[in-house]
Amino acid sequence: MHKREDLPEDRHKDPGSSNGLASWQTVKWSGQAHASAVEIIAEEKALTLYVNEEEFATVLCSPLALEPLVYGFLASEGVIRTAGEVKQVRIDPGRGTAHISLHAPLSPDKRATSKRFVGSCCGKSREFYFQHDVRTAKTFTRQLNLSAAACYRLMEWLEANSSGFAMTGGLHNAGLCTVEKGLFVHSDIGRHNALDKVFGTCLMEQIPAGDKIIAFSGRLSSEVILKAAKIGVGAIISRSAPTDLALRLAKDLGMTAVGFARSGQMNAYTHGERIQADVESRE
């Protein structure tokens, strides 16, 4: 069983971390008028991961839910498949470090890709057909039925639980949901990080994802679809636009991809047969 040190009462917030927000003195303009004001902005921090005492990667992220981020990032990279492969995680938010001890040595192919710098905005910006991506992405073959009303309701829930974005305009949000309700939300300056935090929470708390949905605030890129497939969900619903490569990937992986889900409207781009109109709306 993996060991987690000094977990606070809230398992999704690490000791010593801030609330991910900072204040900044600014001058606000409206036409030709201006005045001094204090703005709330999103914090951005660097977190360097050391796996078995070897530097592995540095991630730019929001200083929130760092432990789920570590688990999710390592799983996305194919370093781990389950939380049980992790012996210990020690995070020092002040120094911006995370030391991860695995039960097994880091494989040579993973050591060869270490010491990377992963930006907050766009992941590794690469095509998805790498060997470990093909190995860890899951093709969705289970039954999944959604109502249109449920899709709208889940996006409303995500927005209602996105206070950091409302305050700063600078955070992405990803929430894990059932077809009936939202379960939890993670926020980050990077949309890929937000998904990794969802992935990490599923691993740490042994939450099965095969019957779940992701509600998402960001653009549906190929990397976003790939991360959702690695988590194991069958659908992702976003208020933003998709890319063509993302949709081709979602189609191949059996994933329902929904974009522009806002104000009672949405576009179901792939596997839309899973979404049905509500009975009362047909009458």
From TrEMBL:
Q: Please list the residue ranges that the record marks as compositionally biased, kind Basic and acidic residues.
A: 1-15
What InterPro entries does the record tag this protein with? Cytidine_deaminase-like (IPR016193), FdhD (IPR003786)
**Keyword Amino-acid biosynthesis among UniProt keywords:** no
Q: Which residues form the active site?
A: 122 (cysteine persulfide intermediate)
Name its cellular compartments.
Cytoplasm
Has UniProt tagged this entry with the keyword Cytoplasm?
yes
- One annotated GO biological process: Mo-molybdopterin cofactor biosynthetic process
Which controlled-vocabulary keywords does the entry list?
Cytoplasm, Molybdenum cofactor biosynthesis
Q: Which residue ranges are recorded for the region named Disordered? A: 1-22
Gene Ontology cellular-component terms listed: cytoplasm
Family per record:
Belongs to the FdhD family.
Protein's job: Required for formate dehydrogenase (FDH) activity. Acts as a sulfur carrier protein that transfers sulfur from IscS to the molybdenum cofactor prior to its insertion into FDH.
Q: What is this protein called?
A: Sulfur carrier protein FdhD
Q: What is the organism field in this record?
A: Xylanibacillus composti
